[in-house]
């Protein structure tokens, strides 16, 4: 179920009310309950509409607006107040907060700041509400970067199937960004023909809002939303780190789970994604090149503690005849294996060729069961049920 935040705004000035209203209308999980152009009438409006949050713009008349905030705080102590003003000096902020506002934003309001403030208010109102909401006011988000230790190791398979699996939870909103900018194939794996891609987003970065961004995502029948790589290979160069920072920032405020399918180039956009991720899944296999590169990647990322501690090694295609032993691999890597996905050529390859994710193509396959376990482990619910590094654990998946 979506968690919508019902908002009422008051601003006597059309010039500032309209852009704020349009910005709020673009946020999927915001419902604009009431809009008022007179401070005098707003208290009645609130009594009738009982919104979750009220937004009071101060600049038309600071004295009246502050008085209104004080009245609102007294009469509706459980309805948080967000004050907005072009004056962002300490004195103005203090006055608003002392009158009873919970948050203060300087206008012109920046979308990311608005989303963050709404999140904070939501969290304060419903402490411990968890990550089970879909939209800009969700309590928490989990950004999962999926990197690979070599080409073809299975990162896209893990990213796409993990995304579709998480999207099964009606309380989650899940999006995947294909950051393999030149040769990505998340769209092929999901058989989606996107109208827009990351290149359109980058070209319109200055006027990017939630409406535009949401329109750029392509929805799969599993519920997963995809922001695809550019269609033209040369457009990959359009996407810079600052674009990606903005896109990830906005999407993480709008979705409970954001999955980033990285290229194998460890280029600047990949590094931005690694930095912004909460968890880095490093997909590897039990063969020499993968293990050697896993050690190299761990060493490089480990040099930056902020990155190193986020890395979890996921072994893919475990159970092939030529596998190096798990114990030996763990000793080489020097870190426990977080998860193992079994070798399941038939389901995986057929599912990829059909452009249908495992949970629709082969829901009972051992690879899908493993991905489902990974999803649970990442969301903190299933680690006890499916410990990763136990030798042969995956053989119990039938
Ligand atoms: N667990 C698995 N069992 C069997 N085959 C698998 C498994 N995981 C992935 N594959 C197959 O391996 C191939 C490569 O997978 P995938 O495209 O996901 O790798 P990748 O790391 O994203 O590749 P790239 O480097 O091109 O981005 C695909 O054909 C896929 O079907
Ligand atoms: Mg890939």
Architecture blueprint of SSEs:
Blueprint: E1 5-10, H1 14-25, E2 30-36, H2 39-49, E3 53-57, H3 62-75, E4 81-85, H4 90-99, E5 103-106, H5 111-125, E6 142-148, H6 155-166, E7 174-179, H7 186-189, H8 198-203, H9 210-216, E8 218-219, E9 225-227, H10 241-254, E10 257-262, H11 268-276, E11 279-284, H12 288-302, H13 305-308, E12 311-318, H14 326-333, E13 337-342, H15 345-354, H16 358-361, H17 366-378
Parallel strand pairs: 1-2, 1-3, 3-4, 4-5, 6-10, 6-11, 7-9, 7-10, 11-12, 12-13
Antiparallel strand pairs: 8-9
This protein binds adenosine-5'-triphosphate and magnesium ion (MG).
Element-by-element helix/strand order: EHEHEHEHEHEHEHHHEEHEHEHHEHEHHH
User: What small molecules does the structure contain?
Assistant: adenosine-5'-triphosphate, magnesium ion
What share of residues is helical? 40-55%
Radius of gyration: 24 Å
Q: What composes the largest sheet?
A: 8 strands, mixed
Number of helices: 17
Query: What is the overall shape?
Result: elongated
Q: Would you tell me the overall average pLDDT?
A: 89
Helix/strand-derived category reads alpha/beta
Number of strands: 13
Strand proportion = 15-25%
Strand order of the largest sheet: 8-9-7-10-6-11-12-13
Low-confidence stretches: 128-139, 382-398
CA-CA gap between termini? 31 Å
